[in-house]
Amino acid sequence: SVIMPEDLLEEVTALTEWPVVYESSFEEEFLQVPEECLILTMQLNQRYFALRDADGKLMNRFLLVSQLVARDGGKAISSGNARVVRARLADAKFFYDQDRLQTLESRVEGLKHVVYHNKLGNQAERMLRVKTMAGRFASFIGADTNHAERAAMLAKADLRTLMVGEFPELQGIMGEYYARHDGEAEEVAQAVSQHYLPRFAGDVLPDGPVATALAIADKLETLAGMFGIGQMPTGDKDPFALRRHALGVLRMLIEKNLTVKLDELVAIAFAVETKVEGVTDASEALTHFFFDRLRVMMREAGYTAQEVDAVLAKHDTDLAQTPKKLAAVHKFMQLPESASLAAANKRIANILKKSADVQTGEVDKELLVEEAEKRLHDVLGDHEPIAKLFYDKGEYEGMLATLTPLKDPVDAFFADVMVNSEDEKLRLNRLALLKRLYSLMNRVAELSRLAI
Questions:
Q1: What is the per-residue DSSP string for 167-194?
Q2: Residue 348 CB: number of other CB atoms within 10 A?
Q3: Does the N-terminal peptide bond of residue 19 adopt cis geometry, omega within 30 degrees of 0?
Q4: Residue 237 φ/ψ, nearest 5 degrees
Q5: What is the DSSP secondary structure assignment for residue 44, as one 8-state letter?
Q6: What is the pLDDT of residues 21-31, one digit of tens each?
Q7: H helices within 313-442, ranges in order?
């Protein structure tokens, strides 16, 4: 099979008016070099198309595109290109052999000479911040703390290698190869390459918990640092790819179903980052930025603006629950009682907003004089325990379904009961009843935002 990325295919097509494909090869000894190095060398330097065999292994053969039909069937072209690629691959092999003479750990000191940001220090200083965050985050998600901190220390060390100096695209990938060569734990080696994931929209996520903890730490360090020095994205300008970093963190929290709160992660990140001179705590701004990205994610997942607004209005930072809650709200909106309940919820919200003296205590059953309020109280009492049970188990669809029997009692309450009674005790008791109802109805989402 031919390895032909779309951009390379388009480039070669644009470079030739009369494209003719020939085959060539190189010595098998070069296959000892990591295949990523060989493929990148062939693609970037020579615009060749590498080949895999039936088992998916890289072959010592490749395809090239020429501008003419050769009289000798392409023998001269093939041999000429074989000589050219041999020199390129020899360089790659030299870099690989030389890099392995030193351990990754021995290169960490050299990160002091790699600039990260003029206000945030060098890569060595940044590494220490990421290491602290990775260790804390690892304890949250059940990863090995020592492995996470070790991986964080080594993660950027390959920036000081010859191979990455020649091919920056291989950072992380070469770090994994060198970490394995040095005898590092498999989780550590894997995390060194995977902490860059996801690199773009739709990219795969890190595999193991150590890699995930480091990936979150790496991205949150960048976000906290940049927000802390006021380098937020503006309009369509995002030179530090902060939107991509935020989406990466959100995807890991949600798709890996991590039971860790976003605000806790942000707080830890700024606790570390604000030790850098000139960095201020921008937790609120960063959290707001995350929720803006989350809003976009959920809209792209197919939910309406109203549904997303209703769920995110709760500001629940346990983001792993967000898709489940949205699915439940979407299903709830298809029920015949949903429109009436949403409208009633909006009415209750307005009443409570205007009543500063709402009681937070228990509803006094003796003060319920109208049949409609008595019925609402009884039905509410019957369904509250069931709804709470559903909610605590994370069965949000079931929880919202328990609200449907409330429709008729709520409608009757507003038809027959004067909330703002002149009798202060009655008024406060009815407001307390409404507050209890409002609290139950809005556990999953702010239903008032679903009202048309």
A1: -GGGTTHHHHHHHHHTT--HHHHHHHHH
A2: 23
A3: no
A4: -95, 125
A5: I
A6: 999 999 999 99
A7: 322-332, 338-354, 371-392, 396-401, 407-416, 424-441
- Would you state the structure tokens that stand for residue 129, as one six-digit string? 């911040």
DSSP letter (8 states) at residue 310:
H
Interval 322-362: pLDDT, tens: 999 999 999 999 999 999 999 999 999 988 888 765 555 68
Cα 349 from Cα 254, distance rounded (Å): 30
Helix, strand, or coil (residue 72): coil
The length of the chain in residues reads 452
Buried/exposed code over 307-340 (b: 16+ C-beta within 10 A; e: otherwise): bbbbbbeeebbebbbbbbbbbbbeebbeeebbeb
User: Which of 324, 326, 244 minimizes the C-alpha distance to 290?
Assistant: 244
Helices 371-392 and 424-441, packing angle to 10 deg: 30
Residue 2 CB: number of other CB atoms within 10 A?
11
> In sequence order, what are the beta bridge partners of 61?
25
| Token couple for 273 | 């980052």
Average pLDDT over residues 159-185: 96
Using DSSP, state whether 285 is helix, strand or coil. helix
Task: Kindly tell me the sign of the dihedral angle through the C-alpha atoms of 331, 337, 338, 341.
Answer: negative
pTM of the complete model: 0.89
Cα separation of 89 and 72, whole Å? 26
Q: Which residues pair with 86 in a beta bridge?
A: none
On the CB side of 313, how many CA atoms lie within 13 Å of its CA? 17
- What six digits make up the tokens of 37? 């190095």
3-class DSSP assignment, residue 204: coil
Dmax over CA atoms of the chain, in Å, equals: 106
Collapse the DSSP code of 431 into the 3-class scheme (helix H, G, I; strand E, B; otherwise coil) and give the result.
helix
Q: What are the structure tokens assigned to 291, written together?
A: 């929720």
Instruction: Find, among 221, 324, 327, the residue nearest to 274 by Cα.
Output: 221
> Which DSSP state fits 41?
I
Quick one: which of 331, 235, 243, 230 has its CA closest to 294? Answer: 243
Give the separation between CA 125 and CA 211, rounded to whole angstroms.
20
Q: Please say whether the beta carbons of 217 and 133 come within 8 A.
A: yes
Joined together, the tokens standing for residue 210 give: 């150590």
CA distance 326 to 305: 11
Nearest to 429 by CA among 373, 386, 388, 350: 373
Q: Which of 81, 32, 93 has its CA nearest to residue 57?
A: 32
Write out the two tokens for 399.
């929880």
